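We modelled the chain as a single entity of 99 amino acids. Its sequence is:
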Amino acid sequence: MTELDTVIHAPARLRVVSTLAALSAGEEITFAKLQKLLDMTAGNLSTHLRKLEDAGYVRQTKEFAGRRPVTYLALTSDGRRAFEDYTTTLQDLLRGAGS
């Protein structure tokens, strides 16, 4: 049996990845908007994003809007593939539990 990806499986990171996966490939969301959508503190979200970025699942792009820094977030192709594998594994586990 295949194991669930522990990087994604943590509840907060699963919320982050599933939200980013809902975006079209190549689409980005700002840190502030993601924080608001998920109702997470900046520190908590940053911690989980760092773990996802270290795994190669999330890409952060920092730019300036005027004089204010803005961070944009997106799933990488590896992150999108990992989430697809995660959901497939979860569905397989649930089907097996029903047997």
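As a brief sanity check on the tokenised model: The CA atoms of residues 5 and 86 lie 6 Å apart. The helical segments are 6-9, 11-21, 31-38, 42-54, 77-97.
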